[in-house]
Each structure stands twice: as C-alpha cells, then as structure tokens.
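Write out the 3D structure for:
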Amino acid sequence: MDFEAVIGLEIHAELSTKSKIFCSCTTEFGKDANTHCCPVCLGLPGALPVLNKSVVDFAIKAGLALNCKINKDTYMARKNYFYPDAPKNYQITQHETPLCSEGYIEIETDEGVKRIGIQRIHIEEDAGKALHEGENSLIDFNRSGVPLIEIVTNPDMRSPKEARMFFEKLRSILLYTEVSDCKMQEGSLRCDANVSVRPKGSTEFGVKTEIKNMNSFKALEKALEYEIERQINAIKKGERIVQETRRWDEARGQTIVMRSKEEAHDYRYFPEPDMVYLKLDDEWIEDIRKTMPELPDEKKKRYIEEFGLPEYDANIITTSKELAAFFEEAVNIGGNPKTISNWIMGEVLRILNDREMEITDVKFTAKDLVKLISLVEKGTISNTIAKKVFVDMFETGKDPEKIVEEKGLVQITDEAAIREIVNKVLDENPQSVTDFKNGKTKAVGFIVGQVMKASKGKANPQMVNKLVEEELLKR
C-alpha cells in the first residue's frame, strides 16, 4: 500500500516593533536576563495591558501580503496554561476571531504552481524563555510580551519539500514587508509542523503528531522525512498512531515524544476581560495597503518582462529582498541585466553560500561589480582573471581597477607576445603537435590551456585560440 503525507504548519514570527505588545518595554534582543520587564509583561497583580497599535498595523500588512481577508471586528482572548515561562498562567492571544484569514501562498513544485491555503493569522504575546543549566532551570522574561503573529496553514502540503518551499517563500514575503526580521537563530521565526499519513487516494485524515524545535529549513525537511517514515512503518506493523507532541532531536536525527497533544478545549479560551474589542475600518486597512512594497512574485514577473531574465534567474534573485536590491542597483548604474544576473547566480552566490553569508555582509558594492564586468568587456582582463579579482574584492572590498593595477593583471593583447608564448609551449610539447597532425583535435585544447597557464591567465583567450591554430598548421 502506498501512503501520502498530510502536512500543515504553524509559524510564529516576532514582529519588528520597538516595544512589546501590551507595554512600553523594549523588544531588543540579547540583553541581560530580566532587564526588559515591567509589571505588565511580568503579569503582576493590578497591571493592565494596553494594545500596541503598531502590532495591529504589522499584522494587517502581513495579512495583505499573504492574500488574506482582514477581519474588521476581532477581540483578544485568554489561553490558559500553566508553564513556568508564562508569568500570568495564561497567554493573551486570539481564538475565534483572528485578525486575518483565508489567505494563501503559491509555490512552484515539480508538478507546477500549487496554492497553499493560510487558515488564519492572529496576534498574540510571546512567553519567556526557559534556560536549563544542569539540574536547574532558570527563566528569562525579556521575551515575555514580545509581539507575535501566528500563521496557521491548511493541511495542503504533501511532502517535506513542499513544506520547506512554503516556509522559505513565507520568510521571503515577511522580510520584504519588514514586519519581522525572521532571524531563526534568535528565535524570531519559529515553525511547528502537524503531520499525518494516509493511504494514497484516501480523503480521510490520519492521526496527526505535532513536531517542535525545528530551527532551520533543513531541520524542518529532515524532521518531516523522519516522522513520515516513522508513522508509515508503525502502521505497517499494525501499531496505532497517537496524537502527541514530539520534538526534533538534531543530534539523533529523530523525533522524540514530549507530551500528549492538547485539544483547544484544554486551554479554556474566553474573551480577555481587560481589553476592549478591536474594530477596524476601511481607511485603516487602505492606509496600510498603500505602504505595501513590491513583493517577490511581482518583482520576479517584472524582472522577466523588463530585463529579459530567465524565470529561474528571476526566481533566485527575488528570493532575497537585499539581493534583488543589489541586482537593481547594478542594472541602474548601467550593467547589462543578464550579465549581472550571471555573476550573481555564479560567483556571488557561490561564495556567499560557501561562507554562509548574506549579500548585506559583503565589502564590495554593486558599482564595484559593474566595474569588474566592464574590465572584462573592454578586454582589460580575461574572465578567468576577473574571477580571481572578484575573490580579492570579496576579501578586501577594494576597487577592482586598483586590484588589477596593483597586481599587474592587465590582459595581454599584444599578438607578438602571445605568439612567442605559443611557440614556446609547442616546442615543449612535441607530442601534442604530432597528435594534432594525426587528427587528434583535443591537442588544440591542451595547448591552449598550457598557453593560458604560461601567461598566468593574462593572455587574451580569443587571440590564444587563433594563434595556436595558426602555429600548429605551420608545423
């Protein structure tokens, strides 16, 4: 029997507001424990919450970017649970009336474009952070009250790859709108997954498990792959899948049981009595709509139509807002769009990926890259030398023209000088000359390579090819 997975995601994104959701404490990350707290975010008796308007603005902006319906009449609710990191023993969130609903994101799968539904986006407060030291556990409440949006998808994904693609696309959209910095390493973007399996062709859902503690795209994909295989193997053995919460153990490469899964009624939701209902009007929503940036899909379409980029190039470049800005700056300076794209897709992304860096971390500018490409187009340096100069630019941030000048990398275009190198190489490789005479054309490529090596990559490649053929024919 063949099985298929049914996957839904629950994603928490911390909003980039300067202050917390119900008080004026700063949301700044990384300061000493329990220094960004007040009676409100510590849940002290008598302290009353006041909703931060910027939180609502940011959540509406996220909803619009994710094609959601914005609900004009909503209210906050209490979600009751007893964990050490919840100072009030409840969380202020939204339950029956989420701020945004019925949205979607489209991803490009091997089978074509697939629409993943977004069930709801609601605003809520974050909890504190538990720190475990040996047998002791400590609580840092700096994060308590930091504003979150929770984005809940429909169970529309059928593979770990689709889940990863959705999560990557979502992160890109949130970064474009600047509603969250999405720093997964700091916990400002967190993802839980609900996953079940069922026989292919079935319309009934299987028993789902929730997976937590996935702090990267790779971890999400690996955790889902493991859990899907675990559930399928269990069913084949006649075992019963139970609804439970599991965590991903990166070191072991497996999911581990944490606790039985709670149902909604376990939290005893009821309207938050200390807060008024939230009522939006069309003007509020339209004012936010006017601030919406060009989103990845719109930018991708424009790059294809305006710059003639292949769809693949446009898709990669627009994944990152900063990378797209770098590309456009280079084009606006005067660079050829396809040539700029080739360098970004090749050398730029290669070195960024190798060193696990972002385009914002580089020392050189878009203007420097255009200068480097111009040196190649003018014949000042070869493409091979340009790649070496690029590495130097990356390391030092120096102007490419200065690097070429300081290192004496100007391309040799003197025909007499190149012919001299060619003849020297031919004299040193008589077997290659014989091979050429015997019809072995590969000998030409070998000789060309040796000439480029002898010139330290500085000889003009077109001239080298021409002169090698000329001199071989003479012999």
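The first helix runs from residue 53 to 65.
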